[in-house]
Every structure is written in structure tokens, then in C-alpha cells.
Design a protein that fits this description.
By secondary structure, the chain is of the alpha/beta class. Helix content is 44%, strand content 15%. It has nine helices and eight strands. The strands form two sheets. A six-stranded parallel beta sheet has the order 4-3-5-6-7-8, sandwiched between helices. It has a two-stranded antiparallel ribbon with strand order 1-2. Strand 7, helix 4 and strand 8 form a beta-alpha-beta unit. Helix 3 packs across helix 5 and helix 7 crosses helix 8. 29% of the residues are buried. The N terminus is likely disordered.
Length: 235
Amino acid sequence: MKVVEENRGIRVDPGSNPTAPPGATGTIRLLLLVDRPIIRDAIRALFEAAPDFVLTAGHDAGRPVPAGVDVILVDLQLRDRDGIAVAADLVRGDGPGVVMLADTADDADVDRAARAGVRGYLLEDDETALLMAGVKAVAAGDAWWSPRAARHLLAAYRRVAAADTPRRDPQVAGLTPRERGVIRLIALGRSNAEIATELLLGRATVKTHVSRVLTKLKLRDRTQLAAFAHRNGLV
């Protein structure tokens, strides 16, 4: 199906039903917000040649989104506005899926796009099959990130996760399994007698273990030992 542009807007060829729900006609209605002529023409030609897309091209970022659009493809490098900011304005719970089109998988851009709530991030030099699959996935309600963009996103997630995970004191590695068990029970508020019962040890042995770990970790008392246990994930 071809789209004919007129001065007053977009005219779809006769016989189509632009208000039909996605999938009802086997087509996906795609809106382009791409300013760069070379990129816009290439993307337009790609999707116009596909029988399962209806293309709305040359849309101005300042105009309301036409009714019935399934996916909006937003250029990261819009001429007068920040593409990611435009995408963030277009993201709505029940609105069209928003996909970024970028020239690189820059860490900062990928992170901002994810925070903006877009459901897709495609690269200009992705293979045609990936571009098509990405738009179709978002039209179906799923998410699709170019493999290179996904790697950056996962790397950023791992960095955040690592920063949120407290680092263990190197001294933890020098503790025996028995010493860790004693420390854990102390952190849980057990007395020496209770520890002896739970670990099937004599009270004198438990007392020796407590004294030894305090010396090994250079801690003053059971309170500091309990704090050490919680800080290093031994509880």
C-alpha cells in the first residue's frame, strides 16, 4: 500500500481502512519523524516497498499524531529539537509504540532513550530484516533494541547493579565455613549457648570461635561483629 502526500496532509489510497486495529488488515501504520533527507528517503523507501506497512511520512514534530498510528519512528537527530525529548513527549500508556532511530549506540543516548520510555532503539546501519522486525515487534506491543544498543543497555544495568551491591571486606575470604556460621548466628542475636545447640558444638568451642574471629577481624565486641556480618552479606 502506498501513501500519497498532499499539502493538506496524508492521503491513503482508496479501499484502505486507516482506523482498523493493528493486525486487522495485516498492516502496520508507521509514522516517521525523520528530518535528515538521506536517512528519511532511505527509511521511507524501505517501508513503502513492504506490503505490510502503511507509511505516514514527513510528519512535523509539532503537530498532533494522526489517529490510528501504530508505531512512531523518531530520529535521534531532529533538526530543531532533541529527538529523545520528542520521543518522551510521545510516549503514552495506550498510545503508539515509540522507536528511536540513531546513528550510533552511544551509552548516554541509549540510557536516555530507555529512561524516556521508548520501546525500541534501532540503528541506521542495522540490516533491513532487523529494522522491519523491530517495528513489527513494537507494533505488537513488545520491545526491540538493536543488538548493539542492547549490549550498551545491559552494560549500564550491570554498572548500576554493581554500584548498588556492597563490596565485601577482603577479610571475609579468610573466614572458615564454621566461623561464618558462628558470625551469622551472632548477627541474628543468638547467645553462645544457643549457637552451641544449633551447631552441635560445646560452649567452650563456641567461645573460642567468637574470640578467634574477633581477633582475626580486629573487632572489639559482638555488636561490631554483627554489624560486620550485615555489611558483608553474611546474614
